[in-house]
Each structure stands twice: as C-alpha cells, then as structure tokens.
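pasting input
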Amino acid sequence: MTAGIDLGHPQAQSVRSDEDVVRVRQLVRTVAVAVKLSLVDQTKVVTAASELARNTLVYGGGGSVEVATVENGRRKGVRIVFADSGPGIADLDLALTDGYTTGGGLGLGLSGSRRLVDEFEIETSPETGTRITVTKWSR
Amino acid sequence: MERVPILKIGDILLVSIQVDMSDQTAVQLQEDLAERIVDTGCHGVIIDITALDIVDSFVGRMLSTIASISKVLDAETVVVGMRPAVAITLVELGLSLNGIRTALNVERGMELIAAAHADELDYQLDDDPDAETATP
C-alpha cells in the first residue's frame, strides 16, 4: 500500500472523505518511521496529523495534505502541510484555545495538535482558506 | 466501510479494535454496541485497543460516549490495552477520557467488571428488606 514510497519527494494526499484521513495517518506514519522518530514522537505526529486532516475535511470542506522529510544538520524530521480553500479561521486566538469548538467536537484539534509537534504555523484568510504547516524533529 | 466485530463471552461483550478506524466506522461501532448490549443483556463491555497506534480526539470521544451509553443501559465499560506512547500522547493532547474505566489487559478488565457487578448485586440485596432473611 505504502510500499515503494519515494521519500526524496513530498507525498500528496487529497482529503475528501474520512477514509482519506485514515490514509493521511498511514502516510505520516510511514515517513515518521523512515526519518527514525522515536515511537512516542511517531505517535504524537500521527495523532496531530489525524486532528488536522479532520479539520481540513470538516471545517475546510476538504483539501490536501503534503508530507515531506526535512533536514537540519544532524536532525531529520517530517513536515506536513494541510491546505484547504474553506472560509478560513475568523478568530485564530480563540480557535487555538483548549475546548473552543464551532463544530461540536471537543475543541482539542488545533490547540492539542500544536502541543504535539515542534513547529506549528497557520496562515488563514477568507480569500485563500487555511494552510497549516507542522514539523516534528527527531531527537 | 469496515465494521468492528463484537464478541459475546459469557456476560461480557468484547470489542477488539484491529483496524485503523475511519470516523464513520467509529460511529457505527457506537451504535452496534448499544444494540448488542440491549439484545444480550450483558453487564460488561471490554474495548481492547492494544492494536491501536493512536487515539485521537475523535476516537477518545467515541470511547467516552460508549462508556456513557453503556452506563445508561446498565453495563460497565472498561478500555484495556492502551499502549504507553498512546497514553503519553493523549495526555499531551489534553484528552482526559473522563468517566472511562481502564485496565492494563483483558483479564484485569474482566475482573473489574465482575467486581463492579458483584457490588451492584450486594447493593440491591441490602436494599431489599425481604432479602435480609436470605443473607445471614
């Protein structure tokens, strides 16, 4: 299924259904294993990816996810970009607060996944949608 | 869509989640379990998550909901087999799994359910004045 994956290039996965969220998890795990993240760090980044891919689907109306390996001297890492062309996030500070939700969930997706990764960036606007970039480095 | 099988072992329903569940599969499991609890009259549900690589907020919420539903239907839910990395991640994510009983493995989960059910029977007996002659 993910055999023969070429880690030299970013891997793209469209997010149109909840089956695609499962595929994003599997893709991120494959890359996290390849860059030799520890088991706990693999678990954290896959969990964060699951939350953010679900947000792309539910709030962004679908979009795409790109998974790439990154290098910084001795350390390797996995970088994931979640992009949608949805309505954007109106109040980013509020959206990053634990427990805040507009979708009937637990309100932990955005705030919780930020805690699970090393780098977390959001660009959002009503015109261009939302683009979230996260990175997890090996220790 | 894949479906998670529910096994009946004595007075207990055992659910061993072996697939990476889509959200829809998780919701389906919730409904299937509620139906099986009522159909079988079982007093305990064990959810084995040994095979799960991750538990995200959606699956976490599903586990809480199943525990609440089964409580209302007179059954105790115990989640067993959580991996250490999953536990660490859950806590950092901010998910507390309120109201969920956990045990390290299926065997301990069964003991927990048996003990909870025995307590409940004792309580009912104590409550019943006619039962006093029956219990020395």
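fyi The beta strands of chain B are 6-9, 12-16, 44-48, 76-80, 101-103.
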